[in-house]
Design goal:
The chain is an alpha/beta fold and 124 residues long. The chain has a single domain, classed as 2,3-Dihydroxybiphenyl 1,2-Dioxygenase, domain 1. It is 23% helix and 39% strand. α1 runs antiparallel to α2. The longest helix is centred in the first third of the chain and has 15 residues. The radius of gyration is 14 Å and the shape is globular. The protein starts with a strand and ends with a strand.
Amino acid sequence: MIGYVTLGTRDLARGAAFYDAIARELGVGRMGGDDRFISWGVPGGAAGIGLTLPWNGEPATVGNGVMVALEARDRAQVDRLHALALSLGGTDEGAPGERFPGFYVGYFRDLDGNKLNVYVFDAT
């Protein structure tokens, strides 16, 4: 149903380095882009993510209540991605852990303050 999600940035080059590392750990790369927009994912695959300088020229802002969820392969990858985001300058919004049976998730914000999580549903 969802093709991709786009987040705003104030610094595309800085944000690109952050998302290049996150995408690499998820096993995907860039799908395209230009000097204002970059997208990551697999064409024809699951939903991708884009990072853009706002087209109206106004500063990028964070949506209150907006969050992007990235699906991991397993709990270990949730832990790695959360730690990776923090090592790249992201901020912690909730350490990885089980929030309810079978739902393991860690929350963080990117360099522009956009909220994301990385999660896995499992039976453990």
